[in-house]
From TrEMBL:
Protein localization: Cell membrane
InterPro entries assigned to the protein according to its UniProt record, in alphabetical order: AAA+_ATPase (IPR003593), ABC1_TM_dom (IPR011527), ABC1_TM_sf (IPR036640), ABC_transporter-like_ATP-bd (IPR003439), ABC_transporter-like_CS (IPR017871), P-loop_NTPase (IPR027417), Type_1_exporter (IPR039421)
Occurrences of domain ABC transmembrane type-1 (ranges): 169-457
Bilayer topology term: Multi-pass membrane protein
The keyword Transmembrane helix is assigned to this record: yes
Domain ABC transporter intervals: 491-724
Membrane-traversing stretches: 166-190, 210-231, 314-332, 397-420, 426-443
Entry keyword annotation includes Cell membrane: yes
Matches recorded under Pfam families: ABC_membrane (PF00664), ABC_tran (PF00005)
Organism name: Pseudaquabacterium rugosum
Official protein name in the record: ABC transporter ATP-binding protein
């Protein structure tokens, strides 16, 4: 876009153009930043043209603008730290400008950076067509496109039905046989009317033998249809339950294999809804509605064949409503399909509120937010009600309309049949049999139209489940895994880099950790310590570089094999519902009671466990309810120690305990770290004095490495952290004394 002839697109994307743009100067990219050098809110904008980089106010076209002509010596650098992004402009000698922003503007910043680098290359090689600017992408990051579920997704369930194909085949044969048996009765009404009842009205005697044979045939067909129907229903119900169980198991197994970033973007209630209610819905569909649909199709097909064999012209009249019903089904199918998927998503919102509130009920009550949570649930429930009401308006019109069409069809058959009887083209018995068959025909037709609803519900549920099954983990298993006969615990980090989306968290990090060495990670919040631990545990895979165990890249090891050598104690200890002993033995379920007690003693947990009502068999509430933070932490430490790991990772392991308990745990750790490679994160630097080396991190990089005394002597980053904590401790002591 040029300054002299701005296009409509330029008017939409730019706030105020500087008055000094030259004629024909095209604006390539724009970034609005919202922070100043002191991280206070202040709006400014960056403009990249085909000639210059400009910076100035958002709403002022004249004053306050700066400009730098594009030159090969210029360099635009991008960085982010603790939720703040930064672009800085440099030449060969100094930094020329710096602009800071909250990370919501990071996609636009990266776009401007890419355009800047392309324009510099274009200026350096003006004839190169490969450097042409790509078409701008209009992307709405707030909206996520959701493809409507197709009914064909139900065919993917064959993967789970295949192991039961022979029982399913038997079920189909039973369905065919029971449907055929149920169609015998209307056919027997023809001789019953024409050879028994009508002759009797005309003065002839009743043939009792024929009557008993016909009535016996009616009873036998009814009993046979009942027996075959019961066998078919029981068999297919058993099979569908097993298919549903296999589907739930496969989905949960796959869910456990996904990396942590998947769970970070999903709500617990939504995942619970998918694995629970969606699989139950599919199970009901397979056991009941799919069976009914197959029966309806067979009944309609076989009935139509019988009707045409009796009287083709009357059969054609019977089929008149079919095209109209088919057209209506096609009309409402898409609305139902998208509507039911929306209902599933909204119901996931309702269950998510429950999954958030019930585990956090202590926080809710502590802050007296019962009314707020109740209102949040009411809003979600009201949204669910509104979505259901919109869908029900469509469905409530569709179902009665199908019933009306079938009633009209029955009326037409009666009229046409009476006319045929009056012309002696058919007998009364034939018309009676026709009416009996038509009742079943139209009844099954109406049932099939109702199955449209449950089919679309099942398709929506299947899509949500296959969304999980189709997701590929960002921490894949190696194609040809390497097995380590013995792990010594040597870790090597070479050029490690990692990004959360567009945000760089770890940058070009190199570190050698010797077997049995204790490393302390220190630094400000947001410096990348926990992220580095997550990479070492392979909860995420590095974006750049490699992490090696005993010289082997972690990505070449099976994930489970590698993690068996890791003992992890988290900053927030998590305990499962069960006994104390079961929680300690979680990583080693076959551990003996002696091993469990030994681990508890080493973690200084044995004494308080014995004070519980049932000792090691005392039940621990969900997420450790009923235990103090220090007690939960010591149980989690015992859980890590029981597996005797070669790598011990302590992520703020003593942050949740008091000073006295911390001393007990620290005493135990001093003995336990011997012979193990230990990586410990701690904000209280005093807890890391026994570490062999301290690694100081800042903005995703290692800035210092050394022992406690060495780093204090340098008076660098570690010394500043140490001095800040001393001042905080002194101030806290003064306040407590006052």
């Amino acid at each position: 876009m040029s300054a002299t002839d701005p296009s409509p697109r330029s008017a939409a994307c730019l706030a105020v153009l500087p008055a000094g743009l030259a004629p024909g100067e095209n604006v390539l990219a724009r970034l609005e930043v919202d922070l100043d050098a002191q991280d206070r809110f202040a709006r400014r904008q960056l403009l990249l043209t085909d000639r210059r980089l400009l910076a100035g106010p958002v709403d002022e076209p004249v004053a306050g603008w700066q400009a730098w002509p594009l030159d090969s010596a210029l360099q635009l650098q991008h960085a982010d730290h603790a939720g703040v992004g930064q672009l800085s402009l440099h030449d060969a000698h100094a930094r020329l400008g710096c602009w800071r922003y909250t990370l919501g503007a990071d996609p636009a910043a990266l776009k401007l950076l890419g355009a800047f680098e392309r324009q510099l290359r274009r200026l350096a090689a003006p004839g190169d067509e490969d450097l042409a600017e790509p078409e701008a992408e209009e992307t709405d990051f707030a909206a996520e496109s959701v493809a409507p579920p197709s009914t064909w997704v139900l065919l993917r369930l064959w993967r789970f039905a295949r192991p039961y194909r022979w029982p399913l085949a038997l079920g189909f044969v039973l369905t065919l046989a029971s449907t055929g048996a149920s169609l015998v009765a209307p056919y027997l009404t023809i001789p019953l009317m024409d050879e028994v009842l009508i002759p009797y009205q005309n003065g002839q005697a009743i043939d009792r033998g024929l009557v008993w044979r016909l009535l016996g045939g009616l009873l036998a067909s009814a009993l046979l249809a009942w027996g075959l129907g019961w066998w078919r229903t029981w068999l297919l119900a058993i099979v569908s339950e097993r298919i549903g169980a296999d589907l739930r198991t496969a989905t949960f197994d796959h869910l456990l294999q996904l990396s942590l970033d998947y769970f970070g973007s999903k709500r617990t209630g939504d995942l619970m809804s998918r694995i629970g209610s969606e699989s139950d819905r599919l199970c009901v569909f397979l056991s009941l509605h799919a069976l009914d649909f197959a029966t309806d199709v067979l009944m309609i097909g076989m009935t139509a064949a019988i009707l045409f064999s009796i009287n083709p012209s009357l059969a054609l009249v019977t089929l008149l409503p079919l095209p109209f019903i088919g057209w209506m089904i096609h009309l409402v199918r898409d609305r139902l399909r998208t509507g039911f998927e929306k209902i599933d998503r909204v119901w996931g919102e309702v269950t998510s509120v429950l999954a958030d509130t019930i585990p956090g009920i202590r926080v809710v009550k502590a802050f007296a937010q019962e009314k707020r949570e109740a209102e949040r649930f009411r809003r979600a429930n009201r949204h669910n009600l509104e979505v259901n009401d919109r869908l029900n308006r469509t469905w409530s019109l569709f179902t009665p309309t199908v019933s009306l069409l079938t009633e009209i069809g029955l009326l037409v058959v009666w009229a046409f049949g009476i006319w045929l009887v009056s012309r002696n083209e058919i007998t009364v018995g034939v018309l009676t049999a026709f009416i009996a068959y038509i009742g079943r025909f139209y009844g099954r037709l109406d049932s099939m139209s109702r199955i449209v609803s449950v089919t679309q519900k099942a398709a929506a549920g299947a899509k949500r489940i296959f969304d999980i099954l189709d997701h590929v983990s960002n921490v894949p298993e190696p194609a040809q895994p390497v097995t380590l006969p013995e792990v010594t615990g040597a870790l090597t980090l070479q050029g490690v880099g990692f990004r959360y989306g567009s945000r760089s968290v770890i940058r070009q990090l190199d570190l050698e950790i010797r077997p049995g060495e204790m490393i302390g990670l220190v630094g400000h919040s947001g410096s990348g310590k926990s992220t580095l631990v997550n990479l070492i545990c392979r909860f995420y895979d590095v974006t750049d570089g490699a992490i090696k165990l005993d010289g082997v890249d972690l990505r070449r090891l099976r994930v489970a094999d590698y993690r068996r050598h890791i003992g992890l104690v988290l900053q927030e200890p998590f305990l499962f519902f069960g006994t104390v002993a079961e929680n300690i033995a979680y990583g080693k379920p076959d551990a003996t009671r002696e091993e469990i007690v030994a681990a508890a003693r080493a973690a200084h947990a044995h004494e308080f466990i014995l004070r519980l009502p049932h000792g090691y068999d005392s039940m621990v509430g969900e997420r450790g309810q009923g235990l103090s933070g220090g007690e939960r932490q010591r149980i989690s430490i015992a859980r890590a120690l029981l597996i005797d790991p070669r790598l011990l990772i302590l992520d703020e392991a003593t942050s949740a305990v008091d000073t006295e308990t911390e001393k007990e745990i620290q005493t135990a750790l001093d003995n336990l770290v011997k012979g193990r490679t230990t990586i410990a994160i701690a904000h209280r630097l005093s807890t890391l004095r026994q570490a062999d080396r301290l690694v100081v991190m800042d903005r995703g990089r290692i800035v210092e490495v050394g022992s406690h005394d060495e780093l204090l002597a340098r008076q660098g980053a570690y010394w500043r952290l140490h001095e800040a904590q001393l001042r905080q401790a002194e101030q806290a002591a003064e306040r407590s004394a006052a």
